[in-house]
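Hi R.,

Here's the chain you asked about this morning:
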Amino acid sequence: MTDVSVEDLTEETDSPSETSGTARPYSLGLSTPSDLSELPAPSVAEPLSSAVVKGRIKVADEVVEKVAALATLEVAGVADLGGDFARTLESVRERMGVGSKRGNQGVSAHVQDRTVAVDVTIVAEYGHVVMEVANEVKTNVARTVSRMLGMRVVEVNVNVDDVRLPGEVVPTAPADGPEES
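And the predicted structure, written out as tokens:
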């Protein structure tokens, strides 16, 4: 099969008077379709600078959750993440020695295309205005997720589950591992 470009099938004339005695460039005996629209479009190489690499980028919900959790903990007045049940479960996991504290506890995210919705559950520190802390969490999470992940944040819901009182004991993992006999 022979490639024939559109330029090969057209006569190059400037005026109708030049058509007499001009040889047609496609007179090599190639069979060409009677309708030029049946020809494939000529392939023109695009410049390297405008080349697009095909592929897909998928950001897992857990990545968004971790970024949102870190952005939440940056806000002054946030004592911890997660509700009562989640914090209790984390405390039990740590005491049993089953893994370390999860960075995204109390945060859930739903990613769809390039948009994301985030739900955050926090524990506020006593002495801070709870509504101001919650609004700052909402703003910081939206800004940080948008900037770091390049996604449009459509919703950030903040649930204040508890208030940490001054001097309240925070459950921590034991410094030593379990003793062996």
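The CA atoms of residues 3 and 110 lie 50 Å apart.

Let me know if you need anything else.
M.
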